[in-house]
């Protein structure tokens, strides 16, 4: 099993954060999660972004970058630390093998990821600079976020003090609120998909399951511990699934484990559908109130899905001392600054992976049976 494949490991709440094998390392090149149900055909709604430029191809080629080392591996390929031969800056190059994407029925998700990243410009969301392809691979060029995953920090800490959890939750909230205002559902919120920049601010990454949805969708996808019950039950759902996952994320940051975890994914789904949570005694009343209003099966009661929308979450008493304008401008001191040297391509916060000596990158003189499926790359 690679570091990005399989289901969550661990057997109890004391060692869960330390032993959990995260499926999707860094900028995520693998989806060990549930796949798209291709039989679901939805009525296509007119995109509110149809007048926006979502072009990402034609700006870069492989020759523009020097590949330095692997940052993560997965089912579809790997992520490399690269350096621009023009400006000397470091970038993350996500490489997906077309054949594997097609065989695992992830074409739509992959194309959606490219488009959603292009549309998203926010201080707490990773920036994608461009894409290109060759006969075998798809390439995505993104900022290199050198501080590592929030998951790694949580694993070392076991659980976060309330002010620390609140800081990260507030920054994640602003990213999710922004995406929802663009009619984008994220659908894979978890500590593994939250990176820390050099100053300790968050960057939401991995948009492999992000999708523009103007009303509802039916796709069964996500990571078991964080999936909302309406998704598990294959019911139509909307942005409310992100608020459920937001609640799970806060719970995990404060306790070190997820509330419905079981070593067997099917049992995890049963726990989610059952909806019974045992909250630790040390959680204060205000956070208990917030979690019970986010991790609730009844969509008519789930915070974020009510008439007040995301403002109901933002205005909850647990967030009362957050100065949202200063937070958005990154004008609030972070609780943790990663121990890295900026500007040199420091990779100390990422695991080492065996390098592939036989990379098939840059090949353009052979047949490409999948090129037409990824025309916007």
From TrEMBL:
Q: Name one GO molecular function term.
A: ATP binding
Q: Which domain of life is it from?
A: Eukaryota
Q: Name one GO biological process term.
A: filamentous growth
| Keyword annotations of the record | ATP-binding, Kinase, Nucleotide-binding, Serine/threonine-protein kinase, Transferase
> Which residues take part in binding ATP?
94
Among SMART domains, the record links this protein to: S_TK_X, S_TKc
What would be one Pfam family of this protein? Pkinase
- The answer to whether keyword ATP-binding applies is yes
Q: Which residues belong to any copy of the Protein kinase domain?
A: 65-319
Q: According to the UniProt entry, what is the EC number of this protein? A: 2.7.11.11
Can the keyword Transferase be found in this entry's annotation? yes
Here the segments flagged for biased composition (Polar residues) are 18-31
**Recorded GO CC terms:** cAMP-dependent protein kinase complex; cytosol; nucleus
The UniProt annotation puts the region (Disordered) at: 1-39
The reactions it catalyses are: L-threonyl-[protein] + ATP = O-phospho-L-threonyl-[protein] + ADP + H(+); L-seryl-[protein] + ATP = O-phospho-L-seryl-[protein] + ADP + H(+)
The entry sums up its family as follows: Belongs to the protein kinase superfamily. AGC Ser/Thr protein kinase family. cAMP subfamily.
User: What protein name does the entry list?
Assistant: cAMP-dependent protein kinase
